[in-house]
Each structure stands twice: as structure tokens, then as C-alpha cells.
Input
Amino acid sequence: MTEKTKNLIDKLKESRSLHLSEYKELIEGYTRESASYAAAVALAEKKRIYGDSVFIRGLIEISNICKNDCNYCGIRKSNTNCSRYRLCEDEILDCCRHGYDLGFRTFVLQGGEDGYFTDAVLIPLIKNIKKEFPDCALTLSLGERSRESYSAMFEAGADRYLLRHETATREHYESLHPSSLSFENRMRCLKDLKEIGYQVGCGFMVGSPGQTAEHLARDLKFIEEFSPHMCGIGPFIPHKDTQYKNEKAGSVELSCYLLSLIRLIKPSVLLPATTALGTLQEDGRERGILSGANVVMPNLSPEDAKAKYTLYDNKLTKGAESAEALDELRRRLSAIGAEVVIARGDMASQ
Output
């Protein structure tokens, strides 16, 4: 690690802000030594605000039907090898009940942009979940919608919304997505969600095709300026039924370094150690936690749905990725000094 890289990490900790060129220098200055230093600083910041706590979210993958054709995604519309499914309201509520009994106090409804889930379907579902589980937070991750739709779901009781921006560079966004999706609309959605009052999550893939240090620097600057409540990042993993099937997967090590930098940009941010980390490396989740992450999202979906919701190849669904294996998750996190807590896990105020 050069002295300049160390100084930039220290500067980020103190100011929570860097110039775009400095973020690029930090990324280009990545080494194991710089990552280790950033992780130590980030972990101290996380502990200052959250102690050893790690929040759990119960992930419910409600549908793998999607109208979009994103170049990197295994559930893209044109993938005829994808076995499609959709959960009904009773199945979703049963997942919540099971999760509540296990100790989950946040549920995350995630799915492709399935036209079945209109406001007329989702609003009663949201109200029923909040009525039955008033002490729980409800997070939605259902893609791009109108401001009116976001407002209606918020008024029905939804607390949080996850919408990865994927990349903060327009040209890179356009290379990863079909022409039916626009960078401007993705940014409009994030802006609307924040103005409406959601706790908002953004995020990006690390190592996506065509990504450069400049792109990653812009992602960090976007996170600094947008100031999300949550930020989900993880390594890109190719899917066999996409045009990127032969592309190299992203790096666990670089992903963890970026987790540390995001923690320094916004110390109170809710930062998941994603399934993708654990998919590429057996101890990837633990490495994410030791780099400053403080959220894990075990899967509450029915077994059949878990097997079909394949955004990328070889996605983990067993072991500590499964909601039923919370004891294993607790054991693994306890071994690195972290503690799974039963709580909604809202973002702390700094």
C-alpha cells in the first residue's frame, strides 16, 4: 500500500467525501494491504455505530417472471430455459409467518418486473403483511415503477425499497441493458423513492462486463451524493443463458474493499454481505462482514422457488443462505465476533 492510498483512506474517513479522481486513485491503488487497512478502519466505524450486531432480512422471491431483457440476468425475458413461477398471496404470507417464527423482523419481497403484480395486487398484500406483523419492516425490490405506484405502496405500509442503480455511468448502463430501459428512468425512480419517504437502497455489480476504475469511482461518488439508507453490492457472476456466459466473474476481494469504502463514505449505511460473495467464496459472507457489512439476507422462499430464481449461475440456496439454517449462520458469524440480532434493523442516525 502506498502512502498516498493510506492517506486517501484516512481522508475519506474524516471527510466522508473525495473528488472523483481520488476515488479512482483509491480503486487503482487496490492491494491486499490497502484492502486490509480499509477493512480495519471500516469495521471500527461499523462497530462505533452498530456494535457487533448483524441484522437479518428474510428474502422472499415472489416471482421470476420479468418483462425486461437485461443482458446479464438469468431471469431475463428471452431466456426460454428459465422455469417460471409466481407466488400467490397465501404463499407469501406463509413465508412471512415462517420467517417471523424463526426471528426475522424484516421481510424483503423481491421479484422480476412481473406485470401480474399491479398496485391492485400489491397494495392489499402490503396491508395484510403489515397488519399481521406490525413490528416488522417491509422492503420491496420490484424494479422500476411509476412515482404514483411507489407512493401508493408507501402509503399502504411499505418501509424500504431496494433498486440497484447497477452503474452510475450512462454509457455503461446502456451496454448492460436493452434500449427499453434508460439510465435516466432508473435515476428518476431512485429520486422518487427518496422523496416519497422510503428508506432507499441502491447498489451495483463489481466486475460487470466493460466496467473500469472510472465507472467504479463514479459509483462511489454517486453513493456519496445520493446518500442511500442501504447499499447492495456484490461481484458480477455470469449466467449460462446470457450473452455474458463466458465472461469472468467479479472479484470477492475487490468487492470487499469497496464495501469498506462505502462504510467510510456513510458510516451508518445498512450494508449487506450478499449471497454472491458466498457463492464465489465459501467464507465470502464472513469476509464481507469483516470489511464493514452489517446485514445478511437468508432466503425464506419455498424450496422450489429458490431453485428457479437464478439471476446468476450456482447461486447458493442451502446452508447459511437458507433461513432455516439460522443456527449455522449464528455460529459462523459468532466465530468472527459478530452477533445476529432479532430487530427491524433500521439505519442508525449518526
About this structure: The chain has 14 helices and nine strands.
